[in-house]
Each structure stands twice: as structure tokens, then as C-alpha cells.
Fold these 2 entries.
Entry 1:
Amino acid sequence: MASQQTAAAPDRGSGLRRAVDGEAGEWFGLAARIGLAVVWAWAGLAKVADPAEAAQAVRAYEILPESLVKPIGYGLPFLELALALLLLIGLGTRIVAVISALLLLTFIGGISSAWARGISIDCGCFGGGGAVDSSQTEYLQEIMRDSGFLLLAAWLVYRPRTKLSADAWLSA
Amino acid sequence: MSEKNREGKRTARERMLEERAAEEARSKRKKKLIIGGVVLAVIAAGVITGVVVQNQRSKPDTPVAHPAGTIGDKNLVIPDGPANAPSVLTVYEDPRCPACGTFEREFSSTVNQLENQGKLYGNYHIVSFIDRSLGGKGSKYGANALACAQDAGKFREYHDVMYKNQPEETSDSFGDKSTLIDLAKQVPGLDSPTFESCVNDNKYAGWVSAVQQDFDKSSYKSTPTILLNGTPIYPKNGEEQISPENLAKWVDAANAGKPLGTVTSATPAP
């Protein structure tokens, strides 16, 4: 009786489990990896051209002291590009996904904070940034978008083994 | 004896398998650590290189070259009208900002008149941030062209022509240097080889960036920001809405009992 019960439980979820652990899961992981890589590459490239603009996007949140505005504004796009590169080749997928998730949580926190304090800014997520008219803020959309990206990162933390990755090639 | 022997053999085999498994786990862990190290190194190297490169690429807060006659501790401000006038009108404007165009078309004649009467000293901060949100170069090139006009002593005239011919915010016609040069032809005595090369070479790009960075660090968020003797008066001064009449009234009220500034025929101040 007892053994039947324990045997039945994993059986019920085994279809899903097989999909998650098996080939399909790894292909889905590849899609998540490439998707997140494109997001980071786009976000990073858009912020590289004008350093003053990138710094102002950071300053506009009115969170960091002036001494940190430039280092963060200048460095962040390259952090994003490095994450994009690592995701693209699939090296250290889990740790890169963890860093991605932490970064996205930071962004969501920053946008929420700006929203809560009633300041009117563009998140500067994909270039631009800085103060905007209060009618032009898009906090909810920005948070939803980042949350979507966060789901991709969370999947890769949960299942870092993906198709066509440097990780798979190195462990073979 | 034989049984004991077999048992000994088995434990030896088991031990060997265990050791091999442990060895494999060790090398797996080592590989993971190496990959993690490489990942962190790539990220750190990328970010550090990025910060250094961007630091070098970014234009300094204090410009290397500035247009003739600019004022303020970093020479970021273009003056217009008599420097010893009793009131100062501080104006932050972006060449592409539609609200600035509306302000200028409604108020420029009043402001010019007040300056000509020795009542008002104009201080212009030509900022250039619309390019950031809409893309393009019109704010930056337009600001540079205004700096070139300041060099030629024709800031006020060119500034007024520019705002009268301002394109829609989304159309970046000021991003085309030939448009800026064509507009200069409407100002007698402005268009010259010096002016054209100043516009075409984007001569004051560093100064334009410094003016914008100064605005970035200010508490003002939008343009036009208009201050009369340091107090914001646009769109309202306290409870009163700005209008050409009200502006003249406010200036007169602020100037009450003070001597007027010296008006010379040529506007540029030292």
C-alpha cells in the first residue's frame, strides 16, 4: 500500500518531469539563454554611445551618491554586454543567470522606488533615461518587462543545462 | 580462507570504485570552480575596461574651448543684454524642445525689449538632451551652431531665427548642418567661412556636452526653465501665469529703485 502510494506520486508528474529534465527542457533552456543574451546585448549597446547620457540615466533615480553615478553609468553597459556574451556561448550558465536575476531585481527595485517616490523618469533600460514628463512615465510596463526577463533568468538558474552550450561541451 | 579472500577482493574493488567516484566528483568540482572563475574574470575585465574607456571617451565637465564672451565659472553661459542690468533672466533651453520654441515665439520680443531698455540681463544655458530620448543630433548641432553665432557676436539674432524655424520635435532637421547654415543666412553678417567651418566641424561639441552635464547635475529637469533673479517663473510665478505683460511687470517690480544697466549698441559683454 505504502509503496504503491510513493510509486504513484512521481509517476503522475513524470511526463512533465521528463520534459523539463530531458531534451525539450534543454532546448527550451537554449531559447531562454539566447533570449536573455539578446536582451542584455541590446540594453548594453544602447548605453555605450554616450557616457554622459548613461550617467544621467543613473543619476535620475536619485538613489546613488554623485561619486557612484559615473562608475555605475559607465560600467553597467559593459556588465550587460559581458553577461550577453557569456549567455550566448553558454559558459557558466547558472552563475551568469544568478547575476542576471540579481541585476534584474535591482532594476525592478530601482524603478519601483522611483515610482513610489513620485519622481518622473524614463528607466533608461535600453538607452535614453533621465527625467521625463509625468505623463510619459511607464513604470508598470517597465517592471512587467523586467519581470518577464527575470523569469528567463530564473529558469536558467533552475535548469542551467542547455543545448549548444560551452558548459555541455566542457562536461562531455 | 577462500571466503575471506573473496571478501577482501570485493572490498578492494569497492574501494577502488569509491575512490574513482570521489576523484570524478573532485575533478567535476574543480572544473566548476574554474568555469566560475573564468566567468567572473570575464565580467570583471569587461566592466573595468568599460569604465576606463568610457572615462576617456566622456567629455570633461570643464570645457577645453568655449565661445567668446561666455560667462560663469566654467564659461558655460551665453550672456545677452547689459551685464549691469538690475535683473537677470536665466534661461535653460534645448534647440529641439517644442515648449522652448513656444516660449521663444511668444516672449523673445519682450525679452529683447527689456534687455534693450537696460532692465534685464539674459543668461542662456543651451542644453541638448532631447537627442537622448528621441535620437538624432539636432540638439547638439543646434547648440554648437548657437555657440558659433555667439563667437560671431550674433547669438541673439541667430537664436531668434532658429526658434522661429524650429521643426517638429520628432523631425531632426537641426541634425542637418546645412539647415543650420541656411538659417544663418537670415542673420545679416553671420554667415562666413569661419561660421560654416565652426558648424561643420562641430567645434564646440565639448562645450555643448559640458553645458548639458551641468544641467544634468542641476535640480532642473525640463526645458524651458526660466528664472527671474533665481526664481522660477515659467509657467507660473507663484500664482500668476507668465505672459509678456506679466514678465515686464515682474521685471519692473524687481527693478524698482535700482539704476538701469548700460546699453551699448553691440550686445556681447566681456
Entry 2:
Amino acid sequence: MKKTETIFDIRDIRVTFDTPDGEVEAVRGVNMHVNAGETVAVVGESGSGKSQIMMAAMGLLAANGRAEGSATYRGQELIGLPRDRLNRIRGARITMIFQEPMTSLDPLYTIGRQISEPLMVHGGLSASAARARALQLLELVHIPEPERRLKSYPHELSGGQRQRVMIAMALANNPDLLIADEPTTALDVTIQAEILGLLAELQRKLGMAILFITHDLAIVEAFADRVYVMQHGRVVEEGTTREIFTRPTKDYTRMLLAAEPEGRKPPVPESAPILLDANRVSVTFQAKGGLFSPGFELKAVREVTLSLRAGQTVGIVGESGSGKSTFGRALLQLLPCEGRVVYQGTPIHGLGRAAMRPYRRNLQMVFQDPYGSLSPRMTVGEIITEGLLVHEPQLSARERAQAATEALKEVGLDPAMRNRFPHEFSGGQRQRIAIARAVVLKPTVIVLDEPTSALDRSVQKQIIALLRRIQDAYDLSFIFISHDLAVVRALADYTIVMKAGQVVEEGATDEVFERPKSAYTRNLMEAAFNLKQVLSRQAEARA
Amino acid sequence: MLGYVVRRLLGAIPTLFLVVTASFFLMRVAPGGPFDRERALEAKVLENLNRVFHLDKPLWEQYLRYLGNLARGDLGPSFIYRDFSVQELLASGLPISMQLGGLALLVALVFGCVLGCIAALRQNSWVDYGVVAVATFGITVPNFVVAPLLSLVFGVWLAMLPAGGWGGGSPANLVLPVITLALPQIAIVARLIRGSMIEALRSDHVRTARAYGLPARMIVIVHALRAACLPVVSYLGPAAAALLTGSVVVETIFGLPGIGRYFVQGALNRDYTLVMGTVIIIAVFVVVFNLIVDLLYALLDPRVRYD
């Protein structure tokens, strides 16, 4: 049987980056191998070096990166191989798909052309033969209307479709090994299940090995034969998927396995006063006509109604493009909207900037991107106290510094850090800073827009604990927007499910999660919590 | 797309109208007049001149009269170059300025792109530093220094090329002015291309192209250069308009009969109609080139076509 033949073998690989702060060792001596036809997962949190191993083996390291050690493909050493010889292997025998479906394809060329290029370069196909093969490949990855899609540009496709195009490109030359670097991380859970199902189907059909890099253990469990667990540039544990999931031997692996957010929030009593009441809120975007296209209207949010009681956390879930973030912003009057929004008895919809200002301190927001939402030119102390300058102008500089100190302590950061700049902090720490910025104003309502989505599970868990603590300490009410169902289940006592700008289902969190009524919600729940089952059902359906 | 072009051109009419109006009144606000001399003209002569050129009428009437003439395509007579209408002056000078500017633009694009690409591909090597240093030099040294230097070295000392003059547009007479005009543009284009090329080479889709084993030449030319051209294209709109409508310094130093001189001479002499004529020409060029840039941009970048 061919299964035991090792096709990809990595021995004591090390990757070092020259940075202005000195050398950084991203990978510190890793051994791993992939046998023909098997699926191997490499798991680890961000910064564990899991992607850099593959970049090193494929000659794709950034200019300041250096690889040592050995990576062989069927006996052929790849490290240090001259580029023209490496080019005969990559794209032909070993192919890759990447995390970012939005940027991994060239925006300036049609997808037909991009799939054809490797076919013409490696397979020596003529342009028309390559095009015919590209069409077959698009059919293979189940892209609707493949004929028309050949002429489409990447920006005309959804994220999931782009990832299908990447897969088509990867399969073009019948590779031996497909390296998939977090291929579903940027996608919605339901799309993720489809893409994983597609990969599994194609693997059965074509027999290539898959090396799957991910931070998500649910994917590993549903998808992989063997697992390498990585931390700080080393493999800390390896074994078959069953072994790792049933008998993990290392603390780190156990921590990863237990990283799913835990706990539930009890509902607030019916008697709790309503703080924020939104009635039939709609948001419409006007798109201006382009060079070759007429303008159009996009109804991002359609008549969504929500009431938030004191001490309550309302979770809003939905896939990307469902309008959940837009709705969150419209609630705080950060976007023009139709409908009524009432805060503690006062209508605030349609208020101008100045009229809205007194309410702003009570209605705070925390954004998803911990990198983009903190000014890089202000110290953390300045960022946290900037709101006080507006809302409590009578405070002296000393009192503001005191407030910053307290807020930093509150979110679990060392107050001595307040004179540092955001870039000196990790993603999780930055999100704590963003929370401190909101909390320092002593608001009553905080809208949290995907605050944990850019973070590793273990960091996520800490942020969730922090949110719980400050909610109790300050009697806060949250609107928690997320596509991550596990986090919403842990934090929210009431859940709203949105799709295409509308509410498809709402109710007490337990109710929505345990007994979803709509098919849409059921699909979401299954893809998020029962990936393995979804994949095996997909496989059966095809068989 | 034709509809778009027509819309844009129609949209340019108010812009041009504003430009004409603003420059008309600004010119008139400036002290002095077209017939002021060190030794004042006789009162009767001045009165006659003013009457001939309608300068004795109220300002609003002059303005309406100018607009009326403009609508018929008449830019009026020049106040200083007697016997010439502004049209005649522009018709003789503009082709010369355009020829110089067009050649300079071509030279700037070819050399700028090549140098910028080489620098980007050899980032942080001595080649890169060399290109950046030369580019910085090219931008900082003003053309009124470069022009006489070139004229002196190649025209006088080495006597390889004419030191100045138009010479009926013979190629030898074009070399030095074109180089002078092109040098700073080469520098700017090279820097723009270098920057955007470095960014393009680091982008995810270039990584994809590498991961798929495409040859380096194909990656650079097909996948990186096209994206790297975009900022240059947007820069070229205003730059082309400025180059093609002539340069006062270069035309004066090399003694070329382009229209760049008319603008400054006209302004200094309060030759109202001549200044208005050149302003309108420049404004039209800016409008047209911005339109060309937008069309070119849409051609290069499919995302723009739908946004």
C-alpha cells in the first residue's frame, strides 16, 4: 500500500528573521512528515511558527527571513534549491492555498487567466487548452456558472468562491501535496464547512496528501488523520487525531482543547428597565454609479427591532454581510438610519453630532480590529482618557492620569504601561485597552463589535472573563456582535440571528442554541458545533 | 463608456467657466494695466487704446463681452504682441511646447519605470540606493540650474549640440530642453514606481504567483508591474498637463518659441487676453488629462470599473 510512503519530510527546520530588534527565531527545530495521500494538521496559536515552516520549505519567506535545516519532497531537498528548479515543484507537485481569499488572487486579472497560468507554465498547455482545463476545474470545485466565472475578476466573487478558485488553481496540475494555510479562517462557518467538505471530496477523488495549517481544533478533529501541535516555534506534541483528542499528554494541548469559551449568562428579570430600544431600524447605502455601471441602493439593515434591558447582553449573530455590524453602528447613531432609537426614554435617532454628544459617554463601542482602532501616535494613557477631555473637561491632568491607571488595572493591564504606544502591545492587550477606553467613561451600554474575532481562543477566553467581570462590577449592558457562536453562547442571555439585513430568529440564548427554529440558524449551529457530523453527512450525500 | 466621457466633458464646462471667471477678475484686480509704461503714454493715446480694446467699458461689460467672444471661439487680440490674435500666438507656440513636453513625458516614463523597477527588484542594494540618490537629486535640483549647465557643457564647451534656439524643430535642438524637462519627472516616476513595486512584490497575490512556480519575469511584469503602474498613472494626469503646456524656464533659457513664456510675459505685462488664453489652454489640458487618467485607470484596474 502506498500510504506509508513519505513524500514530504521536514528535518530540524529553523526559521530566523532579522528584525530591527535583533534576530527572532520563529521556528526552532521542527521535524514533521507527510505520507502520500494522508491529511496532516499543524495546529497552534498565532506566532507559533506553523505557517513559516511551509513558507521556508516553499521558498516564500520574506526577504529578512532565513531557513536552515532540511525539507525534502520525494528525496529532493527544497531548502536552498535554485529558484528555477524549485519552480518545477511548487505549483506543480506541491501547491498551496492561503488564508486570505480576498488578497491571494491578483485583483487585476480574470480568474480564468489566473488558473491557466500554472497550467501553461508547468503543463505546457496552450492558452486555449489551459482555458478548457480551467473550466473543468471550476466545475470540479462546484462554482456555479463556471463558463461565465472564467471571465470574472476576483472582486466579483464572494470569499468562499475565491477560496474555491484557489483550490481549483491548486489542483490544476494534479499535485502530490496540497498545503492549506488556514484556508477557512476568514470565512463564515457554513462556508467553512462547504470548503472543508470540498477538500475532503477532492482528496478522495484525486488522492493527494493535504497538510492543513490551522488554529481551529474543531477542523482538525473533523478533517485530519494526524496532528502536530506547535507552540513557540516547536512541535510540543504529535500523534493521530484520535490520540491527541482523547489522550493529550501536554498541558498546552489540553489548554487548546479546553479553549472553547465556557459558562452561560443567566437572563435578566423581566422587570429590568429597558435602556436602549430600537424600533424598525433600517440602514440603506447609496452606491454611486461607476465608470461602466449605474448606481444602486443597498438595504443593509431592514427594520430590525431590539430592546436592551439593564444588565442584559444581547448577542447578534450572523454571517458576514448580514448587516449585524451596520446595525450596531446605526444604534449608536454612527450611521444615518431610519426608524426609532430610544435611549432611556429619549429618542436619539437622527440627532446631530452635537446633540448626540451628551449620550455618547453612556453609549460606548469596542471594535473588532485591535490594530486599526487605536491611534498609533497616541500613548495608551492618552487613548484611554481622550473621551474624558470631552465628557469631563473639568478633570485635571492628574485626575485623568488617575482614571487611566484605574481603567488599566480594571482590564488587567499594568498601569505603568500607560505611557507606551499601541504597537508595543499584543492583539489581546490592545483589545483590553479598547475596553478600558470605553469603561473609563462609566457608560451604561457598550456595543462590542466582534471584539474577540481577531484573537486566539486562549486570549479570547481571558477577554470573555474580563467582559463578564466589568459587566458585574459596573452593571453594564452589552450588545455583543459576533459571527462566533461559541462566544455569543457564553456571553449573551438573549440572541438575535440576522441574515441579509433581517432578523430570522431571536430568543433566549439557550432557546436559540438548543432548539433553533429556522433552517438558517440550524445550519449555522451545526457548522459551528458539529463540523464533523456536517462533513460526514456531506460525504454520504455525495457517495 | 462613451456616455461617461460625454458626461465628464460636460461636467468640465462649469469648471472651465469658474477658471475663466476667477482668472478674469483676479487679473483685473492686480494693479496696473496693459498700456502702463515707465514713461506714461499721452492721455489721448491711452484713451484711444482703451477704447479700441473696450477697456473703457465697465468691468462686467468687459467680462460679458469676453465670455461672448469665448463662446464663439475668439480669444481676442493680444494687447502687447500687436497684430497678433491670441489664437495665432497659441497656435504657433502650442505645437512646440507639446512636442517638447510629449517627448519629455515619454523619456520620463521609459527611464523612470526602468529605474524604479530595477531599484525595487534590488531593494536595499547599492543599485537601489544609487537610484534613490539620483532621483532625490533630480527632484531637488531646479531646472533653472540644470538648463544653463547643460547648455554650457554640451552647447558651449563640448559644442556637441546647439546651446539654444528652436532650429525649425530639428532633433539636435530638442535634446537639451527635453532632458531638462524630463529629469525631475524621471526622478518622480522612478520613486513612485519603486515604492509601489516594492509594495506589489510583497502583496499576497505575488506570493501566490511565487507559490505556483511562475517564472520571475512573469511575476514581475504581469503581476507586479501592472499594479505598480497605478499610482504613476494618477500622477501623470496633472504632470502631463503641466509638461505639454510648456515651461517658462526651459523655453526662456533655450530660447524656444513655446507658450510657456506667454503666460509669464502676459502676466507681467498685464496682457489680459493672452493670460486668459494660456489659462484656458492649461485648464483644458488638465481636464482632458484627468479624464484620460481615469479611463486608463479603469482599463488597468477592473475594480474601478464597477465601484
